[in-house]
Amino acid sequence: MKGAPTPAPPRYPGLYAHGLFFALLGKIDPGLAAAVHAAPRKPFTLAALEPSPPSGRGEVVLRITVLEDGLFAPLLGVLLREGLDGLALGDDLHRLARVVATPQGSPLAGRHTWEELAAAPPTRGLRLRFCTPTVFATSKPGRRARHTPLPDPFLIAKSLLSSWQHHSPLRFPEVEAAALQSVFELDLELTRFANLRFERAQAAKGFFPGFTGAVEVHCHSDSLEVQRALGVLQAYAFYAGVGAKTAYGLGLTTPY
Amino acid sequence: MKGAPTPAPPRYPGLYAHGLFFALLGKIDPGLAAAVHAAPRKPFTLAALEPSPPSGRGEVVLRITVLEDGLFAPLLGVLLREGLDGLALGDDLHRLARVVATPQGSPLAGRHTWEELAAAPPTRGLRLRFCTPTVFATSKPGRRARHTPLPDPFLIAKSLLSSWQHHSPLRFPEVEAAALQSVFELDLELTRFANLRFERAQAAKGFFPGFTGAVEVHCHSDSLEVQRALGVLQAYAFYAGVGAKTAYGLGLTTPY
User: Fold this and answer.
1) Mean pLDDT by 10 residues, chain A (256 residues)
2) Contact yes or no for A147 and B189 at CB 8 A
3) Interface membership of B220 toward A (CB under 8 Å)
């Protein structure tokens, strides 16, 4: 996207992008926008990124993933239609410069069916790069809001599993999902990390502590079922992200 | 310490220093050496460090802390006596160049009585720098050996508390210690980290994943008792270190 009138990067990119997304949804179908807004788990992720390398011309890269099959085509349609006049990020109108939907166009773009994700090769571990600040909501009893800005292997796997269970039509049977979560708690171990940085991030109405960086997790379980599930979740991470506030730009994750 | 014959740094500094320490203890009192060796929690910490800046002349800095009052004087005596001829780190003899025991001589040296540590100022959080690779032994049921190479606030505080309870004559009453541990689990939150690096470290017979870096933890509890305990544990961290294998060079920690 190109920001025509002003070269300043948007002040609250995650919040603005979130607002733009719902404005677009509303133009497709106000009922749909209201339903998605009310959903406790959003069927999309969203991040407003600096172009790389930075253009210095107010360009913004909006990275959107949809986790619900019916959303993609109408969203693309309204983006193309409205993008000519300009898309509002906060008070600034940004003209749509191009839409990239394939890995050839950007390493952050792609498309997989649920069946393709479910057939991902088994793996003994996870190799994930957290590209935007990532944090886990780890609230404690007594209404204690707590956050964990660390790549805890169990929290990573639990986040992916619960998202998969919520969004995928090919979710694991409940008993199997519970068994997977137990194995993740016992048998995952962080074996390496690199470029781990602390980054405080603005998302929705608050600021959150978060981390970015690359992380390798090993699974000690010999179960092929577990290794299959890990393979699925690693592939799914590209679309679902990890942790809290993925609809506000946090937790953008790529497998490597 | 100066390594006279060879300028190469010792190959397994933690292991060699550990061996040297017990050789010295044995010269004080073979019975004492055997008793300390058999103790599940060692009343000392030990790290073999590169001089800073590196001398390029095979010099090694041995940083030793003792957590038992009776050990300091005899250990210093035998160090000074044996150091003239040379102290063995692995196969190499190192001549003792100097002993530094005060913060004026080195930021890693100091001396506090248990009473002074217990009177440390209360704090709402911890600010700790992990100077050598630090790791937590987080074994799981079914004899699963697991390690956590991340600055988890609860694991940090639990490690310090259990060491204090074991070594300090001023330990908290058991009920209070249990209450403190519950508060640590509920109310500690990592608020910042910097220079967090993954470092695989050799200690004793194995290699361990570990981290170094600076970490800030906030405690949400308003209890003055909790804040007093945190102050004590933060001051104690300088002597006790944090996590596993502190007698082999891991977990050297300084408050800041």
Assistant:
1) 48 84 92 90 92 81 93 91 88 90 93 97 97 96 95 98 98 98 98 97 88 98 97 98 96 97
2) yes
3) yes
- Domain identity same for B133 and B207: yes
The domain in which residue A148 lies consists of 114-255
Nearest to B125 by CA among B163, B162, B151: B151
pLDDT tens readout for residues B139-194: 999 999 999 999 999 999 999 999 999 999 999 999 999 999 999 999 999 999 99
- Cβ atoms of residues A75 and A33 within 8 Å: no
Work out how many domains chain A is built from and give that number: 2
State whether B40 and B147 are in the same domain.
Answer: no
Which of A138, A144, A191, A196 is best to mutate for the B interface (most B CBs within 10 A)? A196
Measured distance CA(A72)–CA(B231) in Å, rounded: 54
Rounded CA-CA distance A6/A22 in Å is 23
Per-residue pLDDT tens digits for B94-104: 999 989 989 99
Contact A142 B186 (CB under 8 A): yes
- With beta carbons under 8 A apart, name residues in chain B contacting A198: 192-194, 196
**Domain end among A40, A67, A95:** A95
Which of B147, B148, B194 lies closest to A198 in CB terms? B194
Q: Mark whether A64 and A175 lie in a shared domain.
A: no
- SS3 track for B231-254: HHHHHHHHHHCCCCCHHHCCCCEE
The phi and psi torsions of B240 (rounded to 5 degrees) equal -85, -25
Contact A189 B150 (CB under 8 A): no
| CB-based contact B191 A209, cutoff 8 Å | yes
Mutate to test the interface with B, among A193, A215, A219, A223 (most CBs of B within 10 A): A193
Residue A126 lies in a domain: yes
Does A100 reside within a domain?
A: no
Token pair 């009138």 is found at A5
Of A33, A65, A95, at which residue does a domain stop? A95
* Residue A176 near chain B (CB below 8 Å): no
- CB < 8 Å to A211, chain B: 193
**Which pLDDT score is estimated for B9?**
56
